[in-house]
């Protein structure tokens, strides 16, 4: 799918999509609770569909209505086929741990881009807990009923999802679990989201002040009714749109959220954007933006959006802590550099730093690299610059299927060629 975007002015209100991360975490916790749980306001996207499909194949019944899913969990069984995780990293990594408590062998199959992303450190940590697991012809193979609990040591600076996966199965062994991180964690708020979701299902996680040690005693997940809040990552594109192209109000956001990308509010304010917050509603109005220095260690998904804002800002922006962006659906550092260079912006890449000199964006043909966050960020760039085409634009289905339609409804001049 190709999307062509013309320069537009925006003045509208939109409701934030539901959180992908909380939807998947809620599904996993509900699957581990004996009885019926309900997810309210879940996100429907490629990633959440992957989680639903995989859980269905291991015995979890999910009855889906529009705004509420009823999940019957706690009785997992061996699948009769491979478990295709598509390109959902959370699904594959969380299920790698969960499959260790399922009778029989589970074979988790990644999609093409997910196959390039790391999983070996998680499998090594699972082996320390007694789990028999391996990589075989690109499949993650887990022998069930092999999880014994105990102590696992792993790096914290590759992916927070490794730690979250261990925490999810932590309470399900008689020994409980102790997770020790050999390096400081990245994307720390995502660990807090996992802890928050587990608490909603009756499981307590203990952790030290540095978030390098987590202990979970033997406990049982309890069925729950879990409300999925709005997604700050998806909302970031909308808020950036307001800051550059008029005025935009986004509803359905929890300003007390554990989500890391809530920091978008601080970043926008530091750039000089006009930001107003009222309860669950955020309004951002266009104003002269200035460059800033920021660290993305704990909010790496904001890098593409913030790069677009930096490209339009007065002065130079320096973004540190960006190395982990190279391990996403694409190498986002190179994808951002490629796109901004095509749009006439000066950008200097280093291993863990990007320096962007603000200027005037010009229209260009943008390769999304089949990365949803690159496609959406450069969709906003197209609204600013005009005469911009985003290739493989349907990759937004991974997290925000209605993105292009919402952009049109907000007043964006968007032409979609399927």
Comma- or semicolon-separated keywords:
globular, four-stranded mixed β-sheet, 31% helix, alpha/beta, single chain, 12 helices, 418 residues
Structure description:
The chain has helices spanning 20-32, 46-57, 89-98, 120-128, 160-169, 188-200, 232-245, 264-270, 303-312, 332-342, 372-385, 403-409, and strands at 2-6, 10-15, 35-40, 61-64, 68-73, 83-84, 105-109, 132-136, 139-143, 150-154, 177-181, 206-207, 213-216, 225-227, 246-251, 274-278, 281-285, 293-295, 316-320, 346-350, 353-357, 365-367, 388-391, 413-417. The chain has 418 residues and is of the alpha/beta class. The strands form six sheets. A four-stranded mixed β-sheet has the order 22-23-1-24. It has a four-stranded mixed β-sheet with strand order 2-15-17-16, with helices on one face. A four-stranded mixed β-sheet has the order 4-5-3-14, covered by helices on one side. Helix 5 runs parallel beside helix 6 (188-200), helix 7 (232-245) runs parallel beside helix 11 and helix 9 (303-312) runs parallel beside helix 10. The longest helix is centred in the middle third of the chain and has 14 residues, at 232-245. It is globular, with a radius of gyration of 21 Å. The protein starts with a strand and ends with a strand.
